[in-house]
Design a protein that fits this description.
This protein is mostly helical and 126 residues long. The chain is 86% helix and 0% strand. The chain has one domain. The longest helix is centred in the first third of the chain and has 37 residues. The radius of gyration is 18 Å and the shape is elongated.
Length: 126
């Protein structure tokens, strides 16, 4: 919503919060999720050779490959918006280009997380 406003100050403030939230919640989940998943896998007797676990791990890597550039892009978006707000100028073309990349990287990551969730719930045995 801040992006739609095209107000660099609002975008910079929102992007700052997004970067903090990503560091606190997403980065924590990136670390905690595989550790707890491994423990749960061991406790339940499943192995990484079960289809749904192998597929979840592959999707986890795909999601991570989308997320890593997103973290860098979010920082860049914040910096560009903050600079535009300080200088009282419009957002530069680079901001819009990076935002499009950020948006399109978000879709496979989001769908991958949904697919991982579905695999963990239904545990298909293919």
């Amino acid at each position: 919503m801040a992006h739609r406003s095209r107000d660099p100050a609002a975008i910079a403030q929102t992007a700052r919060v997004v970067v903090i939230a990503d560091a606190l919640f997403t980065a924590t989940a990136v670390i905690v999720q595989p550790v707890t998943g491994y423990v749960m896998m061991r406790l339940t007797g499943f192995t990484v050779w079960h289809f749904w676990i192998a597929a979840s791990l592959a999707l986890y890597v795909l999601v991570g490959l989308c997320w890593l550039p997103v973290v860098w892009i979010q920082l860049q978006l914040h910096n560009l918006a903050a600079a535009a707000a300080r200088e009282r100028t419009a957002l530069p073309a680079r901001y819009h280009r990076l935002f499009r990349i950020w948006f399109w990287l978000g879709w496979p990551a989001f769908l991958g997380v949904i697919a991982i969730f579905a695999l963990m719930i239904w545990k298909p045995q293919w």
